[in-house]
Write a structure and sequence with these properties.
alpha/beta, Rossmann fold, 8 helices
Length: about 280
Protein backbone atom coordinates (compact mmCIF):
# COMPACT_ATOMS: atom_id res chain seq x y z
CA UNK A 1 0.00 0.00 0.00
CA UNK A 2 1.26 3.46 -0.89
CA UNK A 3 0.85 5.96 1.94
CA UNK A 4 1.20 9.72 1.60
CA UNK A 5 1.94 11.46 4.91
CA UNK A 6 1.82 15.25 4.98
CA UNK A 7 3.47 17.29 7.71
CA UNK A 8 5.73 14.35 8.40
CA UNK A 9 8.35 16.30 10.37
CA UNK A 10 5.79 17.72 12.81
CA UNK A 11 4.83 16.48 16.26
CA UNK A 12 2.35 13.86 15.07
CA UNK A 13 3.99 13.07 11.74
CA UNK A 14 7.28 12.25 13.46
CA UNK A 15 5.52 9.77 15.75
CA UNK A 16 3.57 8.22 12.89
CA UNK A 17 6.52 7.57 10.59
CA UNK A 18 8.09 4.62 12.43
CA UNK A 19 4.66 3.07 13.04
CA UNK A 20 3.74 3.18 9.35
CA UNK A 21 6.85 1.37 8.13
CA UNK A 22 5.14 -2.04 8.28
CA UNK A 23 1.96 -0.85 6.58
CA UNK A 24 3.31 0.00 3.15
CA UNK A 25 5.56 2.30 1.20
CA UNK A 26 5.53 5.67 2.95
CA UNK A 27 6.01 8.95 1.10
CA UNK A 28 6.55 11.76 3.58
CA UNK A 29 6.20 15.44 2.75
CA UNK A 30 7.47 18.47 4.57
CA UNK A 31 9.17 21.77 3.76
CA UNK A 32 12.48 20.11 4.59
CA UNK A 33 13.73 16.61 3.89
CA UNK A 34 15.12 14.96 7.05
CA UNK A 35 17.34 12.11 5.80
CA UNK A 36 17.24 9.78 8.80
CA UNK A 37 13.53 8.93 9.05
CA UNK A 38 12.28 5.68 7.45
CA UNK A 39 10.41 7.11 4.48
CA UNK A 40 10.70 8.47 0.98
CA UNK A 41 11.02 12.19 1.71
CA UNK A 42 9.53 14.73 -0.66
CA UNK A 43 10.04 18.45 -0.16
CA UNK A 44 6.69 20.14 -0.70
CA UNK A 45 5.03 23.43 0.14
CA UNK A 46 1.51 22.29 1.01
CA UNK A 47 0.10 25.63 -0.10
CA UNK A 48 1.27 24.81 -3.65
CA UNK A 49 -1.93 23.27 -5.02
CA UNK A 50 -0.54 22.40 -8.43
CA UNK A 51 2.57 20.86 -6.92
CA UNK A 52 0.38 18.71 -4.69
CA UNK A 53 -1.80 17.65 -7.63
CA UNK A 54 1.29 16.60 -9.57
CA UNK A 55 2.51 14.60 -6.58
CA UNK A 56 -0.84 12.85 -6.10
CA UNK A 57 -1.03 11.90 -9.77
CA UNK A 58 2.52 10.56 -9.69
CA UNK A 59 2.28 8.59 -6.45
CA UNK A 60 -1.33 7.37 -6.64
CA UNK A 61 -1.50 6.78 -2.87
CA UNK A 62 -4.11 4.41 -1.49
CA UNK A 63 -4.02 6.09 1.92
CA UNK A 64 -3.49 9.79 2.62
CA UNK A 65 -2.69 10.87 6.18
CA UNK A 66 -2.92 14.62 6.60
CA UNK A 67 -1.14 15.84 9.72
CA UNK A 68 -0.25 19.20 8.16
CA UNK A 69 -2.07 22.14 9.71
CA UNK A 70 -1.91 25.83 10.47
CA UNK A 71 -1.69 25.76 14.26
CA UNK A 72 -0.61 29.31 15.19
CA UNK A 73 -3.85 30.00 17.05
CA UNK A 74 -3.29 33.69 17.80
CA UNK A 75 -1.57 34.49 14.52
CA UNK A 76 -4.55 33.05 12.64
CA UNK A 77 -6.69 35.95 13.82
CA UNK A 78 -4.71 38.22 11.48
CA UNK A 79 -3.83 35.58 8.89
CA UNK A 80 -7.31 34.32 8.09
CA UNK A 81 -6.76 33.47 4.43
CA UNK A 82 -3.69 31.33 5.10
CA UNK A 83 -5.33 29.57 8.05
CA UNK A 84 -8.29 28.59 5.89
CA UNK A 85 -6.06 27.70 2.93
CA UNK A 86 -4.12 25.17 5.00
CA UNK A 87 -6.84 23.94 7.37
CA UNK A 88 -9.72 23.82 4.88
CA UNK A 89 -8.32 24.22 1.36
CA UNK A 90 -5.70 21.49 1.72
CA UNK A 91 -8.06 18.85 3.15
CA UNK A 92 -10.62 19.75 0.48
CA UNK A 93 -8.04 19.09 -2.24
CA UNK A 94 -6.93 15.81 -0.65
CA UNK A 95 -10.50 14.64 -0.06
CA UNK A 96 -11.57 15.47 -3.62
CA UNK A 97 -8.65 13.47 -5.01
CA UNK A 98 -9.29 10.59 -2.60
CA UNK A 99 -12.94 10.39 -3.62
CA UNK A 100 -12.19 10.31 -7.34
CA UNK A 101 -9.34 7.81 -6.97
CA UNK A 102 -10.88 5.49 -4.37
CA UNK A 103 -8.29 6.33 -1.72
CA UNK A 104 -8.82 6.73 2.01
CA UNK A 105 -8.11 9.87 4.01
CA UNK A 106 -7.10 10.14 7.67
CA UNK A 107 -7.30 13.73 8.90
CA UNK A 108 -7.01 15.56 12.24
CA UNK A 109 -9.07 18.30 13.84
CA UNK A 110 -9.29 20.03 17.18
CA UNK A 111 -11.25 20.62 20.37
CA UNK A 112 -11.33 24.30 19.35
CA UNK A 113 -14.32 23.59 17.12
CA UNK A 114 -16.41 23.84 20.33
CA UNK A 115 -17.28 26.99 22.28
CA UNK A 116 -16.11 25.63 25.63
CA UNK A 117 -19.36 26.27 27.48
CA UNK A 118 -20.21 22.61 28.18
CA UNK A 119 -19.94 20.96 31.58
CA UNK A 120 -19.69 17.38 30.34
CA UNK A 121 -17.31 15.91 27.74
CA UNK A 122 -18.15 16.84 24.16
CA UNK A 123 -19.51 14.09 21.93
CA UNK A 124 -19.17 13.88 18.17
CA UNK A 125 -22.88 14.67 17.86
CA UNK A 126 -22.58 17.99 19.73
CA UNK A 127 -22.95 21.08 17.57
CA UNK A 128 -19.63 22.86 16.90
CA UNK A 129 -19.40 26.56 17.63
CA UNK A 130 -15.81 27.74 17.18
CA UNK A 131 -14.87 31.01 18.84
CA UNK A 132 -11.65 31.76 16.95
CA UNK A 133 -10.32 31.70 13.39
CA UNK A 134 -8.24 28.59 14.03
CA UNK A 135 -11.25 26.63 15.27
CA UNK A 136 -13.42 27.89 12.41
CA UNK A 137 -10.81 26.91 9.82
CA UNK A 138 -10.47 23.41 11.28
CA UNK A 139 -14.25 22.97 11.32
CA UNK A 140 -14.36 24.07 7.68
CA UNK A 141 -11.82 21.34 6.94
CA UNK A 142 -14.02 18.73 8.60
CA UNK A 143 -17.03 19.82 6.57
CA UNK A 144 -15.35 19.81 3.15
CA UNK A 145 -14.02 16.32 3.78
CA UNK A 146 -17.47 15.07 4.72
CA UNK A 147 -19.03 16.73 1.70
CA UNK A 148 -16.45 15.18 -0.65
CA UNK A 149 -17.89 11.70 -0.14
CA UNK A 150 -14.47 10.07 0.30
CA UNK A 151 -13.81 7.26 2.76
CA UNK A 152 -12.32 9.07 5.71
CA UNK A 153 -11.81 9.40 9.41
CA UNK A 154 -11.27 12.77 11.04
CA UNK A 155 -9.81 12.52 14.53
CA UNK A 156 -10.59 15.47 16.77
CA UNK A 157 -7.96 15.73 19.46
CA UNK A 158 -6.69 18.17 22.08
CA UNK A 159 -3.63 19.68 23.74
CA UNK A 160 -1.11 17.62 21.75
CA UNK A 161 2.46 17.46 23.03
CA UNK A 162 5.63 15.53 22.21
CA UNK A 163 9.37 15.62 22.81
CA UNK A 164 9.99 18.07 19.99
CA UNK A 165 8.35 20.97 18.20
CA UNK A 166 6.43 23.75 19.92
CA UNK A 167 4.12 22.62 22.70
CA UNK A 168 3.14 23.35 26.29
CA UNK A 169 5.37 20.68 27.83
CA UNK A 170 8.55 21.94 26.22
CA UNK A 171 7.63 25.56 26.91
CA UNK A 172 7.12 24.82 30.61
CA UNK A 173 10.42 22.95 30.87
CA UNK A 174 12.25 25.78 29.13
CA UNK A 175 10.80 28.38 31.49
CA UNK A 176 11.57 26.24 34.54
CA UNK A 177 15.21 25.85 33.51
CA UNK A 178 15.50 29.62 33.50
CA UNK A 179 14.57 29.62 37.19
CA UNK A 180 11.42 31.64 36.68
CA UNK A 181 8.38 31.65 38.96
CA UNK A 182 5.43 30.76 36.75
CA UNK A 183 1.82 31.84 36.52
CA UNK A 184 -0.30 29.24 34.72
CA UNK A 185 -3.92 29.43 33.60
CA UNK A 186 -6.27 27.39 35.80
CA UNK A 187 -9.69 28.08 34.25
CA UNK A 188 -9.26 26.24 30.95
CA UNK A 189 -9.73 22.48 31.04
CA UNK A 190 -8.97 19.81 28.46
CA UNK A 191 -7.22 16.50 27.87
CA UNK A 192 -3.46 16.63 27.21
CA UNK A 193 -2.65 14.10 24.49
CA UNK A 194 0.75 12.56 23.84
CA UNK A 195 1.45 12.59 20.10
CA UNK A 196 2.67 8.99 20.26
CA UNK A 197 -0.66 7.83 21.67
CA UNK A 198 -2.47 9.73 18.91
CA UNK A 199 -0.20 8.04 16.37
CA UNK A 200 -1.00 4.62 17.85
CA UNK A 201 -4.72 5.39 17.67
CA UNK A 202 -4.24 6.37 14.03
CA UNK A 203 -2.63 3.03 13.28
CA UNK A 204 -5.54 1.28 15.01
CA UNK A 205 -7.87 3.07 12.59
CA UNK A 206 -5.76 1.91 9.64
CA UNK A 207 -5.72 -1.67 10.93
CA UNK A 208 -9.50 -1.67 11.34
CA UNK A 209 -9.93 -0.36 7.81
CA UNK A 210 -7.73 -3.18 6.52
CA UNK A 211 -9.59 -5.83 8.48
CA UNK A 212 -13.18 -4.66 8.26
CA UNK A 213 -13.44 -1.93 5.63
CA UNK A 214 -14.78 1.56 6.16
CA UNK A 215 -18.47 0.80 6.65
CA UNK A 216 -19.51 2.26 10.03
CA UNK A 217 -15.90 3.37 10.44
CA UNK A 218 -16.01 6.65 8.61
CA UNK A 219 -16.61 10.20 9.83
CA UNK A 220 -15.54 12.25 12.83
CA UNK A 221 -14.25 10.57 16.00
CA UNK A 222 -12.83 12.02 19.20
CA UNK A 223 -9.47 10.82 20.45
CA UNK A 224 -7.49 12.20 23.39
CA UNK A 225 -5.70 10.80 26.41
CA UNK A 226 -8.00 9.91 29.26
CA UNK A 227 -7.13 12.44 31.97
CA UNK A 228 -8.64 15.91 31.93
CA UNK A 229 -6.71 18.72 33.58
CA UNK A 230 -6.47 22.47 33.62
CA UNK A 231 -3.22 24.04 32.42
CA UNK A 232 -2.04 24.72 35.98
CA UNK A 233 -2.50 21.09 37.04
CA UNK A 234 -0.89 19.90 33.80
CA UNK A 235 2.16 22.06 34.52
CA UNK A 236 2.38 20.53 37.99
CA UNK A 237 2.35 17.02 36.50
CA UNK A 238 5.04 18.00 34.01
CA UNK A 239 7.33 19.28 36.73
CA UNK A 240 6.72 16.31 39.03
CA UNK A 241 7.78 13.94 36.26
CA UNK A 242 10.68 16.15 35.20
CA UNK A 243 12.10 16.09 38.73
CA UNK A 244 11.56 12.32 38.95
CA UNK A 245 13.40 11.83 35.63
CA UNK A 246 16.12 14.27 36.73
CA UNK A 247 15.34 16.69 33.93
CA UNK A 248 14.95 19.38 36.59
CA UNK A 249 16.56 19.68 40.01
CA UNK A 250 13.39 21.04 41.59
CA UNK A 251 9.92 22.28 40.76
CA UNK A 252 9.50 25.97 40.04
CA UNK A 253 7.04 28.08 41.99
CA UNK A 254 3.62 27.82 40.34
CA UNK A 255 0.69 30.20 40.77
CA UNK A 256 -2.78 29.48 39.31
CA UNK A 257 -4.33 32.44 37.50
CA UNK A 258 -7.41 33.05 35.32
CA UNK A 259 -6.97 33.17 31.57
CA UNK A 260 -7.95 36.83 31.66
CA UNK A 261 -4.53 37.57 33.16
CA UNK A 262 -2.97 36.65 29.81
CA UNK A 263 -5.00 38.48 27.13
CA UNK A 264 -4.64 36.77 23.75
CA UNK A 265 -6.02 37.60 20.28
CA UNK A 266 -7.79 34.23 19.94
CA UNK A 267 -10.42 33.08 22.41
CA UNK A 268 -9.74 29.67 23.94
CA UNK A 269 -12.50 27.26 25.04
CA UNK A 270 -12.80 27.15 28.81
CA UNK A 271 -13.88 23.50 28.67
CA UNK A 272 -12.78 21.24 25.83
CA UNK A 273 -12.83 17.75 27.31
CA UNK A 274 -13.72 15.20 24.62
CA UNK A 275 -15.83 12.05 25.01
CA UNK A 276 -13.94 9.16 23.39
CA UNK A 277 -16.60 6.46 23.77
CA UNK A 278 -17.39 6.26 20.06
CA UNK A 279 -13.85 5.63 18.83
CA UNK A 280 -13.46 2.91 21.43
CA UNK A 281 -16.56 1.16 20.12
CA UNK A 282 -15.66 1.55 16.44
CA UNK A 283 -11.94 0.79 16.56
CA UNK A 284 -11.43 -0.97 19.90
CA UNK A 285 -9.05 1.76 21.08
Amino acid sequence: MKILLTGAAGQLGSELLPLLANHGEVFATDRGTPPSAPANWIQLDISDKEGLNVLLRRLQPELIINTAAYTAVDQAENDVDMAFAINAGLPEQLAHWANINDARLLHYSTDYVFNGEAQVPYRESDIPDPQCVYGASKLAGELVIRESGCDHVTLRTSWVYSSHGKNFVLSMLDLARRGLALKVVADQRGCPTWARNLARASVAVINAWKAFGTEERSGVFHYCDDRDLNWYDFAGCIFDLAVEKKLLESKPDLTPVPGSEFPQPAKRPGWSVLDTTLIGQAFDI
